[in-house]
Structures are given as C-alpha cells and as structure tokens.
Amino acid sequence: MTQSMRFDGKVVIVTGAGNGLGRAYALQIAERGGKVVVNDLGGATDGKGSDSAAAQKVVDEIKSKGGQAIANFDSVATQAGGANIFKTALEAYGRVDSVIANAGILRDRSFAKMSLEELDIILDVHLRGTFFTVQPAFNWMRENGGGTIVVTTSPSGLFGSFGQANYCAAKMGIVGLMRTLAIEGAKGGVKINALAPTAATRLTATAGMPGEQAGEDDPASDAMSVRRVSPLVLALAHESCPSSGEVFNAGCGWISRTVMAVNDGVVLSQYTPEEVAVHWGVIRDAANLRVPRDGTDYWNMIQKATGQA
Ligand code: NAI
User: Which terms in the Gene Ontology molecular function aspect does this entry carry (predicted)?
Assistant: First the structure.
C-alpha cells in the first residue's frame, strides 16, 4: 500500500515519546517524513525521577533510519516546561503543525485512601500538562494557518475504573478541555480530538495487564500492540483529519468513537421530586440518544423539548 498520508515538511511535537505509545507515534511520523520533537522526562511510571536517555534513544533511532528529530527533556507538568517544548520546536524547525499530548503516569489507590499528593501529581502531569503543552502551540497555530492537536484521555476516564479516581478525573478533564479548544480553535483552523488508547506498555504492566516487556512473541502483547493504536493517531494528527472536538478509541486494531449523548427525557409538569421518581424509567432510558455539538446545541435541545424553540 502506498503511503499517501505523509508528514513531509510538517513539525510534530509528541510528549512522552520516550516509551510506549508516544514512541510509536514519533517513529511512524518520522518514517512518513515529519520532523518530530521527541519530548520525554524519562521518569518511572509513577512520575518519580528523570532521565534524558528515554527521549534521546528515540531521536537516535529516528536519525539512524534517516529521519529528522530533536529531543526535549522538559516535564509537561509545568508552564515553563510546556513553553520550552514549544520553543524547542520553533528554534529547531521554525513551525509547529501538530501536537500529540501523550505523556502520562499512574498513581493508583482506592479513593478512600488517596492522598492529596496522589491527586495533585496526576492532575499536574495529565490535565495541567495537557494545558501547558497545548496552549503555546494552539496560539501559534491560530495565527499561522491552523494545525492539529491530539490529546490523550483513557477508557478508564471515560467509563470509570476502580482505584483510579485521580487519573479518571484528569482524563475526563482533558475531554472537557478538548471540547472547548475545538470551538475556540475552529476559526483559526485548529482541529483537536481526544484519543482513548488501549495498548500493552510499561504503564499497563503496572496494572496487571499485558506489558510491552512480554514482547511481540507473546500473543496477548501482540494483540495489544501500540502499532494497532498508532494508525488512528497519525490520521488524527494529519492535516486531512475530518474531525474536531471528538473522542476516539483505539485498541487491538478496533477503532471506534465515544460520544456524550442526551436522551429524550421528560418534561415535568409539577416540578416535584415525586414526579421525577414516577419517570425514572424514561429519564434513565438510553435508547434514543442525540449528541449535542456544544453547549449552545444543548440549550437548543432544552428549548425544543419544552416547546420554546
Ligand atoms: P508509557 O509509560 O509507556 O509512556 C509514557 C511516557 O510519558 C513515558 O516515557 C514517561 O517518561 C513520559 N512522561 C511521564 N511524565 C512525564 C512528564 N511530566 N513530562 C514528560 N514526559 C513524561 O505509557 P503509555 O501507555 O505509552 O501511555 C501514554 C499515554 O496513554 C498516557 O497519557 C496514558 O495515560 C495513556 N493511556 C494509555 C493506555 C494504555 O493502555 N497503554 C490506556 C489509557 C490511556
């Protein structure tokens, strides 16, 4: 198959690209002609420590195959780090066409026992980290003809997961951030979408799932290979991406979309909790769902349902 989806002349920032999913995105974008800023702090899966080797190794690998890449070792979890990642791209290559905000860690604990530190570090790396990494590039893209942004949510965040209250809150926060940036970026040609990946990496290994160290000879690891997620990410990062403001899932080669939807509901006539109780069936019914484009569209739904439209 010919590679019609090329990134020649494009500059793509990938955060957390020293391992796992981010590494796969960086390598494949470089293979398709893109210039990649390979960001990675190089810490452990719980966010402790740092090591420039993670990002540098991926840059060396890209260069050894004839591709173009530059390493950045900043943490996404600070505003200065986010600014510096953007600066690395601008100084090396003069532009930014795409950002893939992928860096992530875990600090799992049941909610009853979760500490403030465990909440803060997860919000810092995932939610605030996405904000800090995306904002400089978003502003630049709006002034320079647009671009694409892919942020990383999680099936755990979208659907809930025992022991991950901090992580799920951050990952759902990223969806809210993305939805609004799609609205605010539309006029400037910025398209932004969220990915909920499922793949065997060192992160999943900590959660008792297949990890990348099991190797590609292991059928479970191979089914969950990062290579079965990366095609969607490349398609979302490419200028031809038809979507903005949407959430996509990818795992084991299955690509799908998650939506926030509203059912037909009921219009109360007596405004009492008893009337709500009588209608629980129809209020909770998930059969006839519609997907609001944005908050204004939802307001239109209220007006229509109540006969004010
Ligand atoms: P990974 O641990 O293999 O890679 C994550 C990379 O992010 C690491 O190289 C790490 O050094 C880097 N990183 C961590 N904190 C950083 C910081 N403050 N600044 C810069 N780099 C930092 O993990 P994986 O699985 O590749 O995860 C990538 C993203 O996908 C994460 O956001 C994760 O939450 C998300 N995800 C992964 C799933 C999976 O099944 N692997 C499931 C759902 C979400």
Answer: oxidoreductase activity
